[in-house]
Amino acid sequence: MEIADEQLREMLRLMYSIRRFELKAQELYKEGLAQGEFLGALHSYEGQEAVAVGACACLNRDDYVLSSHRGHGHCIAKGADMKRMMAELLGKEAGISGGHGGSMHMFDPDKGLMGGNGIVGGGTPLALGPAFAAHYRETDQVTACFFGEGAAVQGVFHESLGLASLWKLPVVYLCENNLWAATTPIRDNWAVPDLAARAESFGCPGSVVDGNDVLAVYGIVHEAVARARGGEGPTLIEAKTYRHRPHCMVIPEHRDEHELEEWQARDPVPRFEKYLLEHELMTPAEQEELEKLVDDELEEAASFARESSLPEPDTFADCLWA
Ligand SMILES: Cc1ncc(C[n+]2csc(CCOP(=O)(O)OP(=O)(O)O)c2C)c(N)n1
Predict the structure, then answer these.
(1) Ligand 1 in reach of 151 Cβ (< 6 A)
(2) If pLDDT is split at 50, 70 and 90, which confidence band does 313 have?
(3) For 58-67, 173-182, 246-255, which range has the lowest pLDDT when averaged over its residues?
(4) Residue 314 has what pLDDT?
(5) pTM confidence score
(6) Which residue, by CA, sits nearest to atom 13 of ligand 1?
(7) What are 72-111's pLDDT values in tens digits?
(8) Coil/strand/helix, residue 208
């Protein structure tokens, strides 16, 4: 598995972008609260960057992504415009969903982004739609479906995997196991140590990967995408990772701080940055330049979002992509 140096640096740029986007989003959220606004739930992707970036690096522009409620990272990794994403967070007209969706409902069909979802596990059956369409039309498009370990105990997840496997649909089901489903720890959620064990019952391959290692994620998803394009059907992948932030800004934190510290020491972003520097795939000056570029881009995105206007109420019934 060869990845060009340029693509490796692009992967780091996307990881920086996701991390900075989340930090800026939290800033805007608190700014809103201070002004007496309530912006609803905001699920941070901070800590999970390697999963979205490693996986989406294996996809083409016209491949599809089904995201979840924790989906900012998937959107950025699939190429969505961060200015429009930031405007969407604030419910502005220039937002990626016209200000009608907010944090959990960002869509960009031109980039294959089929949206986030407030229903836990809701993306798993929806992924069958574009996957079936690609299969029926005999295109070679693949659908990647991201969901959490909490979604993997929903009945619809099992129905979806069974059907995808039976019909050999080109889907990659990617479970981001961040050990917590809101306040429920994994030990109270799963009777199996690894989700991959369930793959056999669906009749598809399953594997486990270190979700904080972007290159490991890339490697495993690359194989799954090749299987899907080759007509061999779905693959179930479990990426073990951790979210750095509390669940969604509005539910009190229940995690042990030592657990958080332990996982922060395995932070995927500095880990990949160190890899590129040590392998001389990037100079320290290039790294600084990249960070600055992303910081500037996020400042610009935040100003764009603040300055954009709210949508007119009578546009709420419009279909944005008809
Ligand atoms: C069907 C459904 N049940 C419950 C909820 C409330 N809820 C929102 S997020 C969440 C936890 C989801 O955990 P997981 O799938 O592991 O994703 P994570 O938040 O860890 O990324 C729950 C229970 C919901 N939105 N939808």
Answers:
(1) yes
(2) confident
(3) 246-255
(4) 84
(5) 0.97
(6) 181
(7) 999 999 999 999 999 999 999 999 999 999 999 999 999 9
(8) strand
Per-residue b or e along 301-320, where b marks 16 or more CB atoms closer than 10 Å to that residue's CB: bbebbeebeebeeeeeeeee
- How far is 80 from 88, CA to CA, in rounded Å? 12
The one-letter code for the residue type at 34 is A
Atom number, ligand 1, closest to the C-alpha of residue 118:
25
Report DSSP letters for 36-95, one per residue.
T---------TT-HHHHHHHHTTS-TTSEEE--SS-HHHHHHTT--HHHHHHHHTT-TTS
Under 8 Å between Cβ of 217 and 161: no
State how far the Cα of 98 lies from the Cα of 38, in Å rounded to an integer.
19
Q: Determine whether the shortest distance from the Cβ of 72 to ligand 1 is under 6 A.
A: no
Taking only the tens place, the pLDDT of each residue in 181-210 is 999 999 999 999 999 999 999 999 999 999
Q: How far apart are CA 208 and CA 112, in angstroms?
A: 26
The first and second tokens of residue 34, run together, are 């201070």
Do residues 145 and 129 touch, judged by C-beta distance below 8 A? no
Atom of ligand 1 nearest to the CA of 181: 13
